[in-house]
Amino acid sequence: MTQITAKLVSELREKTGAGMMDCKKALGETNGDLEKAIDYLRQKGLAAAQKKQSRIAAEGAIGSYIHGGRIGVMVEINCETDFVAKSDDFQNFVKDVAMHIAAADPKFVRSSEMDQAFVEREIAIYTAQLKEEGKPEAMISKIVEGKVKKLSTEVCLLDQKFIKNPDISVQDLINELTIKIGEKIDVRRFAKFTLGEGIEKKVDDFAAEVASMTGGKQ
Fold this sequence. Notes:
CATH class of the largest domain: Alpha Beta
CATH architecture of the largest domain: 2-Layer Sandwich
Structural class: alpha+beta
Low-confidence stretches: none
Number of domains: 2
Number of helices: 9
Number of strands: 5
Shape: globular
Distance between the termini: 87 Å
CATH superfamily of the largest domain: Elongation factor Ts, dimerisation domain
Largest sheet: 3 strands, antiparallel
CATH topology of the largest domain: Tetrahydropterin Synthase, Chain A
Helix content: 55-70%
């Protein structure tokens, strides 16, 4: 059996941020195998994070991110205590999520919020595209089915790959923070604004109006 040394425990603590006793126990359970001990702590931590999701999170913060004066995001993220809400870890997380929303353009927070009308509209678009590409009718339904299964990873914030680390999802990021601070974290809602969105810009009409007012001189 591998000897559980203080150096090994310290190395595991540095890699995972877990407490000394938890690290010592993890190494004991995995016969001193560092990589297995990391997996062991992550599994235990994820289970603990999932248990916290039933708790009430009514504190938190509303964060914002403005990109180039043309894209703006506001997001409300909740936690359980005002103390955690004011911590650097939580505040940095809120900023990161707001920036992610600006870049990744999610439509919903979670997959349960995707309404049937949205899904059906996407199916119609996929089907039309595939027909335009000349795909055989027999293949279209299978391809569309596969695209629908992946839809939540494209349009749902929690399922999207985190822009600063594509190896994890936004939900994974939440789980990591939950383990670290010991409180439930909940992304409640967000709004994204794009400059000029929804405004029909009639440049030619405007130019013609200016010309008529100046006698053709602009």
